[in-house]
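Posted in: Protein Modeling Q&A

I'm a second-year student putting together a small comparison for a lab meeting, and my supervisor asked me to include a predicted structure for XRE family transcriptional regulator. I've never done this before, so apologies if this is the wrong subforum. The sequence is pasted below exactly as I got it from our records. If anyone can share the structure token output, I'd also love a short note on what stands out.
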Amino acid sequence: MATPRQIEQDIGQRLARLRLARNVTQADLAERAGIAVRTLRRLEAGEPSTLDTFLRVLAVLDLEEAILSALPASDIRPIERVSQKGRQRQRARAPSEQPRTPTWTWGEDGDD
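Accepted answer (user: helix_wrangler)
Welcome! Here is the predicted structure, written out as tokens:
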């Protein structure tokens, strides 16, 4: 499994390759995204960046839909709609701890 740092570096490399494939300079992309060239260089180098910066660059490269398609839409399932009476879940809850019922074992009848 990749670490967050490795993923950042991979994303940065992919963005740089895509920018170059589209023959766009760092200065032009940064200006169109409304960020500093240094910020774009850090993003492409895989250094930590903000989500805002990442999304601005994606918008200029026309990749907004690609990033959204990576996350599945969490539509309510029909069975949940019935049990929730049409309401959508607003919070997550920790699973309730079920008390363990002792299991019967041989020799515990007490009816000897």
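A couple of things worth pointing out for your meeting: The chain has a mean pLDDT of 85. The chain is about 50% helix and 0% strand.
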